[in-house]
Design goal:
single chain, alpha/beta, Rossmann fold, 8 helices
């Protein structure tokens, strides 16, 4: 029986994290693995509150960060950990790096954001999906949350690339075709299986 693995896709809005998480899940199922594809904000009660808060352009960055940290802990305890314990592969569309980057770009201190997320368990692999913010926003079917602003996303993208360099996360450009990106992602993940 295969040991559970936890893979995370991170990237700015419109970078393709949702699409590629779903495609990776389908690929792994075809390969014979039991897979759970999930996302943050989660589908839990706190995640529902966050989705509403994201529509408020002037919501408090500190409150947002606390809600994301609470949702992440609930997500870990109710879905991710039980799935890993059942030897499933979990693919999450976003996780801790999103908070560390988005919340610090809004002006919060990295140390504080890291502290409120200290109980979030480390994934086996985090991959950064990279795209020019203008292209990413053009790809989105609908816009509506407060982070979907090109100027803001340039700062977020820079944060992701700096974190990737510091933590040795693989970076995959999603300005290529979906098929090319999937091949690259599958090649990165395969050694971890």
């Amino acid at each position: 029986m295969t040991e559970g693995k936890f893979f995370v896709l991170e990237g700015i809005d419109g970078s393709g994290t949702t699409t590629h998480a779903e495609l990776l899940g389908k690929w792994l199922e075809v390969e014979g693995y039991s897979v759970v594809v999930t996302a943050e904000p989660s589908k839990g009660k706190i995640g529902a509150i966050i989705r509403e808060k994201l529509k408020e352009k002037d919501s408090s960055p500190m409150l947002d960060a606390l809600l994301f940290a609470a949702d992440r802990l609930d997500h870990w305890e109710t879905l991710i950990k039980p799935s890993l314990d059942a030897n499933k592969i979990v693919i999450s569309d976003r996780y801790v790096e999103s908070s560390l980057i988005y919340q610090t770009v809004t002006g919060l201190e990295l140390e504080w954001v890291a502290e409120i997320n200290k109980y979030a368990q480390k994934p086996d692999l985090t991959i950064i999906l990279d795209i020019d913010p203008e292209i990413g926003l053009e790809r989105k079917a609908t816009l509506g949350d407060k982070y979907e602003d090109a100027k803001f996303l340039y700062w977020v993208r820079d944060g992701y690339l700096r974190r990737a360099d510091h933590n040795h996360y693989p970076v995959v450009s999603t300005e290529k075709s979906i098929g090319e990106v999937q091949t690259q992602l599958q090649n990165i993940i395969r050694p971890f299986l």
